[in-house]
Amino acid sequence: MRLLIVGTLEGHISAAAKIAMARGAKVEQVDTIEAALAALRGGQGADLVMVDVNLNVKSMMESLRSERINAPVVTCGIGNETDAAVEAIQAGAKEYVPLPPDPELIAAILEAATEETSAIIHGSGPMEKMIALADQIAPSDASVLIVGESGTGKELIARQIHMKSKRANERFVSVNCAAIPENLLESELFGHEKGAFTGAVARRIGKFEEASGGTLLLDEISEMDPHLQAKLLRAIQEREIDRVGGSQPVKINIRVIATTNRDLAEEVREGRFREDLLFRINVFTLNLPPLRDRLDDINILAEHFAVKFAELNALPARPLEPAAIDALRAHHWRGNVRELENTMHRAVLLAEGDTIGPQAIMISDTLGANEDAGAAQADASAMVGRTVADVERDLILNTLGHCLGNRTHAANILGISIRTLRNKLKLYSDQGLQVPAPGEGERAAV
User: Fold this and answer.
1) Which residue from 136, 208, 283, 367 has the least number of CB within 10 angstroms?
2) Dihedral pair phi/psi, residue 101, rounded to 5°
C-alpha cells in the first residue's frame, strides 16, 4: 500500500514510517498540508494519509472533498490531544493515532486501510476456475474486460490480475465511472490544467497519469458517456492523453482493466457504447458467476463476515447454526456478495445467545426467487388506483434504502442507468421528499 505522512512531530512520525515500511508499505513524507495536496494533485496517490493532528486537518479535508481527491485520512499526535482529535474526526478523518507509535496499532491501521483489497474468499468450483484463468492471463499486458452482476467481486479479480502481473510493484488505480458525474469524469480520468474551468485552482494529474507504469481499472465502464468514450479509445490506442485545458499530449504506459454489469454487445446495438472501444478493451473477457450459482461460497463468506463484524462491533465471534446457513443458501442474492455482507452485519448485531440462528437472518428482498406468491399478489392489488409515477417513486426509494444508500447498487437492481437514478432522486428532493444519503464510498462523488 501507499502511505503519505504529513508533518514531523519531533521525529515520532519518522518512527511510524519505519514501522509502516517494515509492514510492506511504500511511504512518502511531506511537512505541510500544502505539500500533501500538491503531491496528491500531482498524481502521487495514496491509499492512506497520516496527518499531524495539529496541522489544519479541516482545511485539508475540505480541499480533498472539493477537488474530489479520494484518500482516507487518519490523524496522529503526541499524547491525548483530545480537542484536536475530536475536531479532526468531525472534519472527516477516520481515526486518531496516539504517538509514540505502537507497532501493533500501526499495523492494524494499515490492515484496515487495505482490508480485503486483494484477498478473494471462495470455496466453489466456478470461482476456482475464474481465479485460475485470471492468473493465467495476468502476466500479459492485454486489456481485460470483467463482466458480472453488481457485488460479485469484479474489482477483487482486477486486483488479483494486477498482483500477478509484471506491473505488480507499480500502482493499481481504480476509478468508478458510475459514481462520478459525467461532467467531472473527463477531468478525473485525464486531469486538467489550472484555470481550465471554474474551480480548477491548480493543475490536477488524472487517473491515467497516476496509473502510468501500472494498472488502471475503469469500473462500470458502461456508464461512461459516449462522447467521452471516443477520448478514452484514443488514449488506449495511442498511449497518450490530453489534459483538460492542456496544449500538449502526455505519454502514458498503463494496462487497462474494465468492468461492467451490462451486456456491452447490447449496449453497442442500442448506440450507448462504441463498438471500436469494446473491441479494444475485451482482448480477454472474464465472466464472474453470481453468488446464487456459487452456493459453496455462501457458507465461507458468511462465516468470514460473521467474524469480521463481530470484531468491528467488539462482540464475541459466534458460529452460524445450520438453519441459518440453510436460510442463506435458499436466498436469491440479487445483490450478491455485497448483499450477503450487509445481511451478516445485521445478523451479528441481532443474534442472541452463543450462535447466530435463522431469526437473526433478516433478508428484505421482495424481488428474490423465494418470495411468497400470495404476498406478491396482495402487493400488486394494493397498487391499483395509484399512478405509475407514484409506484415508480416508491420502488426507487425503497430499493435505495435496501441498498443502504448505494446508488450504483440500486441502479443495477432497478435496471436503470446511474444517470437516470440521479435525475429521479433530484426530482424527488426538489419535491421535498427525503432521499437516502449516498452510501459508503459514494459520498464524495455523487
Assistant:
1) 136
2) -75, 140
Cβ pair 218, 175 in contact under 8 A:
yes
Q: For residues 98 and 79, what is the distance between their CA atoms, to the nearest angstrom?
A: 6
Q: Are 74 and 97 in contact (CB under 8 A)?
A: yes
Asked if 420 and 411 count as a contact pair (C-beta separation under 8 A), the reply is: yes
Give CA separation, 120 vs 72, 110, 158, 214, 360, in Å. 22, 19, 11, 21, 26
Q: Who contacts 131 (Cβ-Cβ below 8 Å, separation ≥6)?
A: 120, 122, 157, 160
What Rg, from alpha-carbon coordinates, does the chain have? 23
Hey, what amino acid is at 2?
A: R
- Amino acid letter for position 249: P
The Cα-based distances of 288 to 126, 156, 260, 285 in angstroms read: 8, 11, 11, 10
Q: Supply the DSSP symbol for 275.
A: H
- What does the alpha-carbon distance between residue 170 and residue 172 come to, in Å, rounded to a whole number? 7
Cell numbers standing for residue 199: 474551480
Grid cell of 265 as nine digits = 454487445
* Cell numbers placing 431: 419535491
As given in the structure block, the three cell numbers for residue 146 are 470483467
- Report whether 78 contacts 10 (CB < 8 A): yes
For 65-89, write each residue's pLDDT tens digit.
Answer: 887 787 888 888 876 667 888 888 8
Domains of the chain: 2-113 (3.40.50.2300), 125-287 (3.40.50.300), 291-360 (1.10.8.60), 373-430 (1.10.10.60)
Q: Which of 344, 328, 258 is nearest to 294 (CA)?
A: 328
φ and ψ at residue 257, rounded to 5 degrees = -120, 135
pTM of this prediction? 0.67
* Contact predicate 170/255, CB 8 Å: no
Q: How many CB atoms lie within 10 A of CB 420?
A: 13
Q: Which helix (H) or strand (E) holds 51?
A: strand 48-52
- Predicted confidence at residue 377, as pLDDT, reads 45
Tens of pLDDT, residues 313-367: 888 999 999 999 999 999 999 889 989 998 999 999 999 889 999 999 988 654 4
At residue 256, what is the residue type?
Answer: V
Size of the chain, expressed as the number of residues it contains: 446
Alpha carbon distance 93, 387 (integer Å): 45
Are 346 and 362 in contact, with CB atoms under 8 Å apart?
A: yes
Mean pLDDT estimate for the chain: 84
